[in-house]
Design a protein that fits this description.
Elements: H1 3-27, E1 32-36, E2 42-45, E3 49-53, E4 57-61, H2 66-92, H3 101-127, E5 134-138, H4 140-173
Antiparallel strand pairs: 1-2, 1-5, 2-3, 3-4
Helix pairs in contact: 1-2, 1-4, 2-3, 2-4, 3-4
Length: 177
């Protein structure tokens, strides 16, 4: 096994974590909850549903979150494509400088996820009724998606460094270095 195939295997192992965390985060409903004062009124937001709890629980879909939904899902898909491109380019292609494409794809995916967070929080604050004693709590799904984003940045850095190392090694073996 060549050194660049080992780089690809390490990148795949690192990349499995954001994929698993992202799937859990996108499919679970506990993104943000808002408590209004001392009352038992609580509104829980997922990426898709909104549930209001008084004496009963009423849930429904949210139309105003479409921008953040698109950004989160598209960013997650781009992150997966970047991981696959990174693993394939690192493991299979050892004579070209195509290794630098994967970090670019990964950074686009993670920045898109980050933009989705900003639009999501903006939408939640705009949709909730104004209150002086409103308390905003991040749910586990939001924290998992933040972890997905952070590990995506780590993966971007990893594939960037491995691409630079492989490119340097290619230049050194060709006596161009």
């Amino acid at each position: 096994m060549h050194y660049y195939q080992k780089f690809a295997l390490i990148g795949l192992i690192i990349g499995i974590f954001p994929i698993i965390l992202g799937i859990i985060a996108l499919t679970t409903p506990a993104w943000i909850s808002i408590n209004h004062g001392q009352s038992s009124n609580r509104t829980s937001y997922g990426l898709f549903p909104q549930c209001t709890t008084n004496e009963t629980t009423n849930c429904g879909d949210i139309d105003s979150f479409q921008t953040s939904q698109y950004f989160e899902i598209i960013g997650y898909v781009i992150l997966i494509v970047g991981l696959l491109a990174g693993v394939l380019c690192t493991a299979l292609i050892d004579k070209h400088s195509i290794h630098f494409i994967a970090p670019l794809i990964l950074i686009i995916g993670t920045v898109t996820i980050l933009l989705g967070f900003m639009f999501y929080i903006k939408s939640v604050v705009e949709n909730s009724p104004p209150s002086s004693d409103m308390k905003l709590h991040f749910g586990y799904s939001m924290i998992l998606m933040i972890a997905t984003c952070i590990i995506g940045y780590i993966l971007t850095a990893y594939f960037s460094f491995s691409a630079g190392y492989i490119h340097r090694h290619i230049l050194a073996t060709a006596n161009i270095y």
